[in-house]
Model the fold of this input.
Amino acid sequence: MQIVNYQKELDKLIKKIEQGTDEKAPTLFLHSCCAPCSSYVLKYLRKYFAITVFYYNPNISERAEYEKRVEEQKRLIQIYNAQLADKPVNPKAEGFPGYPIAIVEGDYDCENFYKFAAPLANCPEGGERCFLCYELRLRKTAQLAEEGSFDYFGTTLTISPLKNAAKLNEIGLKLEQEMSGTKESRQDGMTLGTPKWLVSDFKKKEGYKQSIELSHEYNLYRQDFCGCVYSKAERDRISKRSISRIREDNGENIIVIKRKP
Done:
């Protein structure tokens, strides 16, 4: 089985956009899992795409946690848009920072998540339950991208070392194929366009490292679990098993981890 370097594929697309003559930037409907993961992705892509962030994460277990994350996403976008003031608006101009970023907040319909997740409660993190969660979020992203006549749809999820980038791209390409094979007409008689999946592996080129640095720079809330009850339980199990003690050092809490043989 041939291994695809999705970052190189994205590099090829961006080079094509840079060399193009279109006056308008291609539009991208970008699913985002959280502000920290999107920090690098948005900074990277906003020079080439007119991005609308789609915050849709029904896997998050508690509404308070969901609201905290979505508000942090909105704050980051406000920061990035504020950076465009008094900057060149021509993408060919030197110092062009990027296009303004919009955001759409999806419904917090966690019932849809639990329909398939509950029977897979004992599935390990990173397994089939996670793959179905990927598809739930990407399918909704694809649907709205098609309805909105976007050129591309994608996700920030590939920036995480804990997420399966190959599987995410496999699902995204499958959804693109499904849409292109089943074009339907809207009620107003217009044919829906077929957005293309934006292949990615954002953790490459030190993307993940840069997301951590940007999170510190903008003081973003950086959660320590995916968001679902299962990842939270896994985090708690690891914490109880691995953390032996916490000591004070120069006024800061230092976690000392005891490795299991």
Notes: The mean pLDDT is 84. The longest strand covers residues 243-249. Helices lie at 6-19, 35-45, 63-82, 110-117, 128-147, 165-181, 207-217, 229-242. The CA atoms of residues 87 and 96 lie 7 Å apart.
